[in-house]
Amino acid sequence: MKIGFLGNLAGNAWQMAKNFRAAGLDTEYINDLDHYHLFCFPDWYEQYLKIGMDKVEETRQAWLAKLASPGGKPRGKTWSLAALKSYKDVPAEKTAISLDQIRSCDKLVVSGINGMLLAAAAGKEHDCIFWPAGGDWRLITEGEGRPSGIKARLPFEFTRLILKSSLGKYPVFSSHDPVQDYSRRWHKKLRYLPFPLPVHQPLKSKEKVWELIGLDERETAGKTVIFMPSRISFIWKKTNVFLEAFLEASSRNRNLLLIVPAWGQDRDRVCEMTDGASIKLLDSVFSIPFLYDIYSHCDLVADQFSLGSYGTAAVGAFSCGRPVLTYIDEDRFREKGFPVPPVINCRTKEEIVSALEKVAAHPDLLKEKAGQMREWFLITHQYQAAAKKLNELLAEF
């Protein structure tokens, strides 16, 4: 059975196709050219890169030009399938290739609006399995605020309509619980599919990684190093709650050091909050091999404190055997039969402060937690274990 992965929001389709193929499954990555973030490109997962924030768009345009110009043919302007607006160039012959790829697959694991529309155009709707990314869930649950103005509202409402209808039409596989409890209505169709990743082994030494990101040995000596990789968002990630908690805890525990890549919609507000001593802001983003090396050499990864679930940033930390500080709604996970990762679970400022002070006083606890995380990852998200789960789900549908 050939399984196609379509709708490359956040690079999910490319990673699933690659890692399930490594586990022995017959997979096909179908490139829909929906590449509005760096992490939608294969280069992001294959190269060891540190990219300054002022170079992000320039890099994206260069990668897009390389990817979207087969044979060096000129590209024509088309309407984006994602939101009915022209924000990228897609060659007509590339769309034709994608439709042929879709038709060659027996099953399709699809994310996002592009994937749904292309699958319908190829006449393969009945072979679709919906794998909603975090952004899909936010749109479905109306968590993503409606834009103002008719030109922005129309594509927004169209996208929500297609995604919501997909929940009712297709089996739904998910590696994490929805952002809000919208899935209760579709409970019987929701199945757990762990996001597949290999175990990450560091490519560079700790000393070299710290040097490359601009950390001095004196800054890390005797410190518990915490890394917060996710985009900075006061609404979706509650970055502000964590930072307030960290500043309070570090004022009493000088052995805590936080590293934060300054990206996301609220990056300027974070710059205003930091003390310049216990928090190191990095004005760069890091490709996956580099990012996972940072995970591997830090002591603790902090993710988000509002969603009640975990995404691929946390799974990456799991693959490195790192303990993760985040918020998981354990009752909601168990209600749907989703396994609960052994994270350091906290949500409020007070809970985060307490967790950080415990870590500062007893750093050896993190080694114990790291062992639990690695063991859980191997039986849940490691790509061969995940492939076994995918085969079971496909047999069910």
What does this protein structure show overall?
It is a single chain. The chain is α/β, with parallel strands linked by helices and 397 residues long. It has two domains: 2-197 and 384-396, Rossmann fold (3-Layer(aba) Sandwich), CATH 3.40.50; 206-381, Rossmann fold, CATH 3.40.50. Helices cover 45% and strands 13% of the residues. The protein has helices spanning 12-22, 43-46, 56-67, 92-103, 112-121, 134-140, 150-169, 206-213, 217-220, 239-252, 267-273, 288-297, 312-319, 330-335, 349-361, 364-380, 383-396; strands at 2-6, 26-30, 50-52, 107-110, 128-130, 172-174, 190-192, 224-227, 256-261, 279-282, 284-286, 300-302, 324-326, 344-345. It has a six-stranded parallel beta sheet, with helices on both faces. The chain has a four-stranded parallel beta sheet with strand order 2-1-4-5, sandwiched between helices. A two-stranded antiparallel sheet has the order 3-11. Helix 14 (330-335) links the parallel strand 13 and strand 14 (344-345). It is globular.
Write a concise keyword list for the protein shown above.
397 residues; alpha/beta; Rossmann fold; six-stranded parallel sheet; four-stranded parallel sheet; 17 helices; 13% strand; globular
Element layout with pairings:
Layout (H helix, E strand, L loop, with lengths): L1 E5 L5 H11 L3 E5 L12 H4 L3 E3 L3 H12 L24 H12 L3 E4 L1 H10 L6 E3 L3 H7 L9 H20 L2 E3 L15 E3 L13 H8 L3 H4 L3 E4 L11 H14 L3 E6 L5 H7 L5 E4 L1 E3 L1 H10 L2 E3 L9 H8 L4 E3 L3 H6 L8 E2 L3 H13 L2 H17 L2 H14 L1
Parallel strand pairs: 1-2, 1-4, 4-5, 6-7, 8-9, 8-12, 9-10, 12-13, 13-14
Antiparallel strand pairs: 3-11
Helix pairs in contact: 10-15
